[in-house]
Write a structure and sequence with these properties.
Length: 147
């Protein structure tokens, strides 16, 4: 994964007014997506869509924290780089999983690669564990301050 500085220089992450309304909206979307995902049975027909929704759910949670810190992310990879650099709470193994999830999601979207049921189920389990951590990162000072 590229370093955060790459995305800052490129403009994919930029200063933004802290927006508690946007933060709340993104956290609610994250929560609602997770509830929706958990209500579905994973099948061969929907494995791809579940994996994509899990990724979107996690990105909403990450972006809620980024906005709370006074920044805005324009790319998913930039959001992951921000989380990797500034979160004290998310384990390296979880960051590695998120990076693989991004690559898998991109390969599904861009090249139509299939997603198997086992991978989709693993992403749901991962989201159920990670999303509660994301909800409290900025509020509990788990992000290093940039200013």
């Amino acid at each position: 994964m590229r370093e955060l500085e790459h995305f800052l220089l490129k403009g994919d992450i930029r200063k933004y007014a802290k927006d508690t309304n946007l933060q709340k909206t993104l956290l609610k979307a994250c929560h609602d997506r997770l509830l929706f995902i958990q209500s579905l049975a994973v099948t061969e027909q929907n494995a791809r869509f579940i994996l994509e929704e899990v990724f979107n759910c996690i990105i909403d949670g990450i972006n809620a924290n980024i906005v709370a810190e006074g920044f805005l992310s324009e790319s998913d990879e930039a959001s992951l780089a921000f989380l990797q650099k500034y979160s004290q709470k998310v384990a390296k193994t979880d960051m590695d999983f998120l990076e693989r999830l991004l690559k898998t999601r991109d390969s599904v979207r861009k090249y139509g690669n299939p997603v198997n049921i086992i991978d989709a189920k693993q992403t749901v389990v991962f989201a159920r564990r990670l999303v509660p951590q994301l909800k409290g990162l900025s509020q509990s000072q788990q992000f290093y301050r940039l200013e």
